[in-house]
Amino acid sequence: MKANPPKTALKFLRWFCREDYLEEIEGDLIELYEDYYQWSPRKASWKFTWSVIRYFRPTFIKPFNRYPSNNIAMFRHNFLLSFRSFKRYRNAFFINLIGLSSALACVLLIYLWVNDELHVDKFHEKDHRLFQVMEHLQYDEVIRTTKETSGPMAEAIMEEMPEVAYAAAVAPPHWPGFDGFILSVGEKNVEATGQYVGKDYFNIFSYDLIHGSADQVLTHKNAIVISEALAIKLFNTTEGIMGKEIVFQHEQPFLVSGVFKSVPINSSTQFDFVMSFELYKDIKFWVDDWGSLGPHVYVVLKAGTDVSLFNEKFAGLIKRRFPESIRSPFLKRYSDNYLFSAYENGVLVGGRIEYVRLFSIVAGFILLIACVNFMSLSTAQASRRSKEIGIKKVVGSRRKDLILQYLSESVLMAFFSMIMAFMLVALFLPQFSEIVEKQLSLTYDHALLFSALVITLFTGLAAGSYPAFYLSGLKPVSTLKGKLNAGSNAGWIRKGLVVFQFTISVILMVSVWVVYRQITFVQEQNIGYNKDNIIFFDVEGNIMDNMETFLTEVRRLPGVVNASGTGHRMIGHNWSVSGIQWEGRAPDDMTRFEVAAVNYDLIETLGIEIKEGRSFSKEFSAESAKIIFNEASIKAMQLQEPIGRIVNFMGEKEIIGIVKDFHFESLHEKVKPFCFILAPGSENKIMVKIEAGREKEALDGLRDFYESYNAGFAFDYQFLDESYQAFYAAEQRVATLSKYFAGIAILISCLGLFGLATFTAERRLKEISIRKILGAGESGIVRLLSRDFTGMVLVAIAIATPLSYFIATTWLENFAYRIDLKWWYFIGVASLTLLIAWLTVGLQTLKAARISPTECLKNE
């Protein structure tokens, strides 16, 4: 006998539905009722009626009979449905909100940093015509590229190259000693950073002058141009100060010839004042030598100049002036230098842009992980919402209407998450700015708001796309019966999404660990001299004329082990030459040596080990005619039994010692040739070795003695080991940021895993109850429910391990001296990931395993 649906339910449907719709769904309704009837003939009528009454309420039926033509009404309707969905599935809502807001906060922070990086030095009006002179130095088969050139370069360019509108040489502010000049007005002393620049400097760069003309401010050697901030510090005003006197280093008076607005924070060059480069040439004899490198040169090309053609003509300029040179100059756009500064064998290979790309990718992955969470939880809830979807489709809802509803829901979720993300960014921006060493600010300008809107829409559409198409594609009959025909595929997709999440998390965790180990290796590596407890400070004031007396008194201070003077900070390049001659040197040998002009006891102060021969000593005469090389120098010169051999460098010099190789560059580079010459009176730094444990006593004594001996000068010192770490500032930032981002990625992944575990446990409550009745223990149930998740995490680890190995190996290739990748790095990260996953899933499944079977089963 054919089972017929109850009349009450059909009357309810006729009340709300159009007749044509009712005719279309009549067969489905009959099939649904028959399914109930087969299950329980006695309960079929009231279950069918209750289902219709429960799901066919006016709030569901009216919009789906025919969608309102008014777009605003449609929007209000979807908005209301989204709120009801959030309220009904509040656990999933909060999990998605936390995950998406955390990811969007990361994206916003990285956006602020990337945006700032991309705009550094872009504010100059002549940006498209503003270039810096670079040089390729050819050494046998190796090409070294440098920003440094010769002092006469700017004048030669103006003489030979009519395509150039302006050219200026600069002794930049990052040079040793340029960050601590003392400027005095009356009794007021101010420490400031300065540079020496050519007369057309303000015609080249857009540092706006408040007072003075760009053509005139640097025409005299005794002129000084100061910033607005420095003018206020010295004179308490910027008005009426033109022509007033400022004393430089308590010695030389200069006259204010101009005042410029303070340098923008998005300028890669920060300084407080400038003076004439012509004056610098009078101070430093080597600046006018074509064989020396040091100054930077900037040019502005005339409009319409082809840079490629210009570089072809420009390449031979140095050899026309200095025939034996191995250098060939070229122009590079100035504003590109900040991001694109790394060269390998004369080829541009990157620079800071690599970190911009890296963290942009990291931001994308973190956002993708959060979107995956949303997809996973939404598809996992399909069984919860299946009847809702089935009823809507039965009463006439079109698929595109459902897609629009669910996409609206996900976009609204993304909108809420973006609001919370802005709150998180405002909270953590000061700490983030400190890590990246930038003055970032959250200004709600058009660019930021537009970018936030685009990110929000992208996130909402990306996160909601799959759930929307998946849920809207469910068949009404199957959903109303509780049978999801796409369940198997959806299950595999959810597992794939979880695997993807944890794969990215494992890669990030391995990367953080490798970066940490490499930085630790760098910090603990024996660099060939003892940089611990050594401070250095500038030679200035009375010290310049009384070096020996000063050093003698310093050595007598309590807590001081030794002290000496040097013209080299032992960190980075300072003075390099290629003109050293020796017996057997090949005519085309252009080996470049780093040179340190030092005083007695410098080698002993630093603890550099003598491999062969001796150090400079007052017990011997004519020590200024002696020279000491490192091992790399002797290897490059191919000298046998070098002690006693004569080389020609600033006159004939006898080799008296060979020191073991030490690193004066970062461990990115191999040790290069280095030599010491004795040149008392030419030092610009003093290095002091302090006894361990007596640092405060020694520094207090040094400060008192320095300020009494050098009145008017501040005792501004730096620790050598801290300065050495500046080599790895970029890596330190990467390590710190990666640590936080990896933590957020694993947190978001675990949130998704927690949500899926919660949902899975809820779906299997009856199964759990039956198993407990049949004697299953809590531990067995926990293992059962955790088994699938464990498998997914293990698959993620298997995929991530080779990928992370490749990424780590590629990054470590940037270091000439690096760690070996140990197998336990990967096993350790894998174990930690698995432990975190077990804790995340285990806590939830344990809660489900402890539920009372009676309470669960009696609700059926």
UniProtKB/TrEMBL annotation:
Domain annotation MacB-like periplasmic core: ranges: 94-313
Domain of life: Bacteria
Keyword Transmembrane helix recorded: yes
Location relative to the cell: Cell membrane
InterPro entries: ABC3_permease_C, MacB_PCD, Macrolide_Exporter_MacB, Permease_put_prefix
Location of the ABC3 transporter permease C-terminal domain: 361-465, 741-853
A family per Pfam: MacB_PCD
Entry keyword set: Cell membrane, Membrane, Transmembrane, Transmembrane helix
Transmembrane stretches, start-end: 93-114, 358-382, 403-429, 449-471, 492-516, 740-761, 789-811, 823-843
Keyword Flavoprotein attached: no
Membrane topology: Multi-pass membrane protein
Chief location of this protein within or outside the cell: membrane
Protein name stated in the entry: ABC transporter permease
Natural source organism: Agaribacillus aureus
